Amino acid sequence: MFKQVLAGVGAGALLLGLTACGGGDDSGDGGSGDGLVVGFAQVGAESAWRTANSESVKSAAEADDRIAELKFVDGQQEQEKQIEAIRNFITQQVDVIVLAPVVETGWTDVLQEAEDAGIPVVLADRGVEAADEDLYVTRLGSDFAEEGRKAGAWAVETFADDPDGTRILELQGTTGSAPANDRKSGFFEVLDAEGLNYELVDSQSGNFTAEEGKAVMETFITTHGLEGIDLLYAHNDEMGLGAIQAIEEAGFKPGEDIQIIIVDGSKAGFQAGVDGKLNYIVECNPVFGEQLMDVVVDVANGESMEKFTPVEEGVFDSTQFEAELPNRQF
Ligand code: AHR
């Protein structure tokens, strides 16, 4: 069987491959007789999580005889690039489009174009705003609000008896992205519901990268100092790890002078936990490539689907970091 995974090609370059890529027909499997052609518009390569997610999807497509080809486009964290990729997938008449949308809004037009072309869209990882829900078939990924609630529950448990109130810094993910919006709302929903006495001292975006997380933490330290700050809530590992560097460079002990929660659970994140530099990890699982291929095939076959399928995820405190570290896949 002809099998090809195009990794890292620019959206424009995909047009050049039009004749070689094949496309959909009306056969029973929703694609050509040799399997499905799938276009995947990925967010970027901003984190270990994202790299693991791309590898999981690519290797699952490669190993799956039902998939003839995966056209992979790295959107470099830019919505315009993802929209261009989707338009190229439509031109190429792929069988199914998979989109991991960098932000939640601004997708209506291009999703409508896919629908008009008769190409079903599956969301992987992140979601889009509710108004666009009719324009995709299903989403497979994390329940980001639940991740925020898990982080909030640990904060309540840890700081409930603090008589002075809990002073919090927050490093948000990419502005307008589903995980940034939902991890924030889920976290504060629990703090408010449980009546924790807290103050959000500052909250800014570090765009899910270590570099920007470190820079924002440096600004936090310059602006507020770290004395009297109890908790840093970082929406992903990279930003948390960047912040840890900034905290150490300022002469403080991360994990002791300030408690830290991160979301993802990469090897590097767990290692920082083993080293005593952070206190709680909420898992976000990127390894869902095989599950995604099942969804893609079902969608191409017109099967009815739940609107959202969450992937399984856990939480880890300092008593679990060492034992869990060898199990981490990314
Ligand atoms: O959408 C999932 C988030 O995106 C991960 O938590 C983060 O590391 C990535 O950049």
Walk me through what this model shows.
There is one protein chain. With 330 residues, the protein is α/β, with parallel strands linked by helices. The chain has two domains: 11-138 and 287-310, Rossmann fold (3-Layer(aba) Sandwich), CATH 3.40.50; 144-284, Rossmann fold (3-Layer(aba) Sandwich). The chain contains twelve helices and 13 strands. The protein has helices at residues 11-16, 18-21, 48-63, 79-91, 108-116, 144-159, 178-193, 210-224, 237-249, 267-274, 289-300, 321-324, and strands spanning 4-6, 36-42, 67-74, 96-99, 121-124, 138-141, 166-172, 198-205, 231-234, 259-264, 280-283, 308-310, 315-317. Strands 1-3-2-4-5-6-12 form a seven-stranded parallel beta sheet, with helices on both faces. α10 (267-274) links the parallel β10 and β11 (280-283). α3 crosses α11 (289-300), α6 runs parallel beside α7 and α8 packs across α9 (237-249). It binds alpha-L-arabinofuranose.
